[in-house]
# Entry
Amino acid sequence: MSKRKNDHKNQHPMQRLFEYGKAYRPLIWKAVACSIINKIFDLAPPVLIGAAVDVVVKQQDSLIAQLGFKDVFVQLLILTFLSIIIWGLESLFQYMYERLWRNLAQNIQHDLRLHAYGHLQELELAYFEERNTGLLLSILNDDINQLERFLDIGANEILQVITTVIIIGAAFFIVTPSTAWMAMLPIPFILWGSIRFQKLLAPRYTDVREKVSLLNSRLSNNLSGITTIKSFTTEAYELDRLRQDSQAYRKSNQKAIAFSAAFVPLIRLIILVGFTAILLYGGMEAVEGKLAVGTYSVLVFMTQRLLWPLTRLGQTLDLYQRSMASTNRVMNLLDTPITIHTGTVALPRETIQGKIKLENVTFAYQEGHPILKNLYLEIPAGHRIGVVGSTGSGKSTLVKLLLRLYEINHGKITLDDINIQDIFLGDLRKAIGLVSQDVFLFHGTVKENIAYGNPNATDAKIIQAAKLAEAHEFIENLYQGYDTIVGERGQKLSGGQRQRIAIARAILKDPPILILDEATSAVDNETEAAIARSLDKITAQRTTIAIAHRLSTIRHSDCIYVMEFGKIVEQGTHEQLLEKQGIYAGLWQVQTGGNNVISEQ
# Structure
């Protein structure tokens, strides 16, 4: 993998893009062919103009007359007919290349966005915790859209410039080799200047892409945290921070613009040399009779058609460099290695008993700072256990390891005596229903959020799950009931309402293993008591792990584990732990002895 990744890094972005789009190569070649053919027909009118001048000046001695058409009107009629055909074909192939390039751009950006997002979903949780969401959104949206714009316009521009240089250059050397070099003389300098500008622009546009990512990150964070901004009255502070990021983006763009804007004026001066040379030297040869007037007309027009399009290289080069910087960022994302690989053992839901075992499990988010240390924990199938402990003791880490959101460093975790690393990842996660303290609801209806993960669920089953989660009553009181839009992240609902919907979502999933990670932390005492009454039904016939802040929610567990510093320091039933007069008993006394302060988890 590392060798392949290094090979990719040494490749030019355009080469990588071409390799990525290999499925579209037939479409690419069709688009290329249409662009070239269109340019060939586009170069024909100056030849027709030269032929028309030849007919008017020489009449019966013109080139067309030598083909047997002596009548001047017939000669001009032939040229008119040819003009209609050429203009018609030019228009046809322009329609074809525009449609092909634009569809190609749409297809590649669609596939690339889905591929990049799909790859992101396969990456471990640590990848997202170490990166800003706005940066990733910038890659998935802005960078891929930048690439789309290049395929829409830039690819055709480059092809047509190359076609123009080759065809007109060849024609010049065939027809008038003595003057051809004058028209071609500026081209090496233009190409050298283009390559030089490209090297100067590349790092500047890479910096532009980085700056716009930071800007997008700021906007994404601020829009997500708008309630916090308003409550702390930091609108002016955030506006100032946004101004700084936007200013950095503007300055980065200005540095790139300073170079790209200078390209066209400099190229125009170089082009002027070739154009005036043909105009002057070719004109003198025409006056002296060494060059036919019609041929001279074609030379002047063709020189203009050859050289002036090169002035657009500045805009095309600008678009090209922006897209290559974006392509690098997208491809680097796709090169990010997937560290958590799926197993090969299928584990259908109906076959799962729910026996969980952690054997000497050690895990650290950062090397040298283990969160769990040689942890041993065995949960019999169908049992309900509780886990308590102070902040940083490793309670929530257990959940992440069971779901394989992270890989353990040492030891083994098994489900029904099968190493979870050997189980098909989809089967493992389908077997576990998680209700987290940090509830995430998607923008949509209450019904859609409850049915998330089980979209084919009937209304009856959705309502039944809501009733078990003590959510049905408040949902019915919403202005549109189950069809009420909850807003982004469920912002239209209270914390307790969001948690009850999350519980209903897990119940509807009906997993053999249920994990409640502070599942009732945001509900009031009355609702908690109601949910506690439902837990017997909710946890029946399934293994349940309840990580709790309020000890009252786990007091009836088959076994309660107390964690400190990544180890289990106490275990037993509620009554047994109270008799030990240890950490658990101390927590229980705090929560029931009239002291409302509860140690923070």
In short: The chain has 22 helices and ten strands. The first helix runs from residue 2 to 10.
